[in-house]
């Protein structure tokens, strides 16, 4: 990693903590300021700027969260630098708790306005009001984190990272590749899984429960198989290149993930997958979890994307 990589990594970590409308403009300004300061240090030291000099410069400039707080109004909950993260975590957690509670109390048939109001009252008293424990837990967590940073400032020191690296070690990527290959093995015919562990001694009803419906076999299954196969060369490339993917490969990966989510959603909503109702429900639940995790990953990736450039509206 060279000095420029350190600066870019630091600018990205600062910018992603800002609202999107001012992110690129601030990133452009901050990058120019740091490069100017780095050049001045290099001239004073009489040597070319390197990663160590750049890291020393940005650490003296401040933690990314503290620097971002200079560019936007901060909340005073716990630690000013943690205010927005606290609010975001509180809202997301409460929405999930309220949504799950509402689904639970509206699950019985609602055949009249009175039964709807009864369910709403149960949700209010048993889900919404008790959910206030979640902000309390966050207060304790953020307060403990702030206390730990004050006690041990070195533990919160910013460390540069290569933006183009795939998250996870090579071992994790290899395990993921093995998992995909095992998934292909099961996807082609899940009854092989029964043969492997039960040796054909299972009851006919169990074997039938793990049999695909003809509709799924001829409609969604070929698409799911092709999309899984397309992930294999990308993972091999990431492992071979030291967990690095080019910008084009990253874009292809994201588009492939979106297409995969669309096909899996089609699979969930397109009728039974297995002949056994219980097996079908469990399989579709697993698909819903995969879709949710994938979409969350895509959302986090997009949120962290930064393209340092001046704000054209401000210039105009």
Structure description:
The protein has 316 residues and is mainly α. It folds into three domains: 3-73, no CATH class; 80-156; 170-303, no CATH class. It contains 15 helices and no strands. The chain has helices spanning 3-15, 20-45, 51-61, 64-71, 83-105, 113-128, 133-151, 170-188, 191-198, 204-209, 214-218, 221-240, 247-269, 277-303, 312-315. α2 packs across α3 (51-61), α5 packs antiparallel against α6 (113-128) and α8 (170-188) runs antiparallel to α12 (221-240). The longest helix has 27 residues, at 277-303. The radius of gyration is 26 Å and the shape is globular. The mean pLDDT is 79.
**Biggest sheet record:** none
Spans where pLDDT lies below 50 across 5 or more residues: none
Number of DSSP-assigned strands: 0
Query: Helices and strands: which structural class?
Result: mainly alpha
Radius of gyration: 26 Å
Residues in helices, as a percent range: over 70%
Number of helices: 15
Provide the number of structural domains: 3
- What oligomeric state best describes the polypeptide chains here? single chain
Task: Return the average pLDDT rounded to an integer.
Answer: 79
Topology:
Layout: H1 3-15, H2 20-45, H3 51-61, H4 64-71, H5 83-105, H6 113-128, H7 133-151, H8 170-188, H9 191-198, H10 204-209, H11 214-218, H12 221-240, H13 247-269, H14 277-303, H15 312-315
Helix pairs in contact: 1-2, 1-3, 1-4, 2-3, 5-6, 5-7, 8-12, 12-13, 13-14
